[in-house]
Amino acid sequence: MQKSLVKSKINNLNKPEIKQAWYSTYGDSYEEGLRFLLKSIDSNSFISENLLEDIKNKKPIQYILGEWDFYTGTYKITPAVLIPRPETEVLVDYIKNNIVDIKSILDLGTGSGCIAIELAKIFKDAHVLGVDISTKALEIAHKNNWQSNYKVKFMESNWFESVKNKFDLIVANPPYVPEKESKNSSLVHEPKNALFSEQNGLADPLKIISGAKKHLNPNGHFFIEHGEGQSEIIQEAMHKEKFSSVTVIKDLVERERFVYGNA
Length: 263
Ligand SMILES: C[S@@+](CC[C@H](N)C(=O)[O-])C[C@H]1O[C@@H](n2cnc3c(N)ncnc32)[C@H](O)[C@@H]1O
Fold this sequence. Notes:
Blueprint (H helix, E strand, L loop, with lengths): L2 H10 L2 H12 L4 H12 L8 H6 L4 H5 L1 E4 L2 E4 L9 H13 L5 E5 L5 H9 L4 E6 L2 H10 L7 E5 L10 E6 L4 E2 L13 H4 E2 L5 H10 L3 E10 L5 H10 L3 E7 L5 E7 L1
Parallel strand pairs: 3-4, 3-6, 4-5, 6-9, 7-8
Antiparallel strand pairs: 1-2, 9-11, 10-11
C-alpha cells in the first residue's frame, strides 16, 4: 500500500479507538507510550495499517513507528534488527570523548548500523566496516547509511570469519542474554539471534574476545557491551587474551555494561 494511503487510513481511525486498544492491552501502566504514539500520528510518521492489531500484540512502539532515535540520528528499524538502546549511546559517547587518531573501525553485529554510522559521523576520516550474520539486518543498515554519506561499508560475516583487515578500533554489541530468558515477554518481538547467546549469554562475547586481537593494529582499541553481572568474566577473558588497560565502563544508571581493552 502506498504510504499516503496508509496515512489517510490512520487519520480516519479515531483516536478513542486507539486509546481503547492501548488501555485494554497495557492498562494504565504505559501511558507515556500512548502519548508518544498519538504525537507521532499527529506529526504524520509512517504507521502500519495494522495499528490496532499491533497494539493488541504488544508490538514495541519502536517497531510500530518503524524508526527510532539513536545518538544524533534517526534509524529505520524493522523486527529484523534490535531496537537501538540508550545504554549503547553511552558507549558511542564514551568512544567519542576518549579515543583519538583512528583511521579504521570495525562494528561487529551491526544490526541497524547505528553504532557504525554514528562512529562514521564522529571519525570523519576513518574507514568504517559493519558486519552482521543477518542479511535482513544488513538490508536495514544499508537503508540507514545515507546518514554517513554512504561512508560505512557493510558485509555479511560470522563475527571475524570473512574479515580480512586489521583495525584501529573494534566495537561489539553482541547477543549476550542467557537463553533461559527467551520467554521474557519484553523481548519476544526482537530477533533471537540479536539477543540470545549460549553458555549463559557468554558464548558470543567470549568468541569475539578470543578473535579480537588478531584483527587489531598495535595499540588498537577494543570495546564490548555485555549484560549485567557479566563484567568479571568478560574482564578475565580480556586479561587472558593479554589486553592492557582493561577498563569497566558503566551505563546511565551506574551498571557495569561495557569493557575496554588496548591491544
Ligand atoms: C545486540 S544486536 C546489536 C545491534 C546493533 N549493533 C545495536 O547496537 O543496536 C547483535 C547483532 O549481532 C548479530 N549477530 C548475531 N550473531 C552473529 C554472528 N555470529 N556474526 C555476526 N553477527 C551476529 C545480530 O544479527 C544482531 O544484529
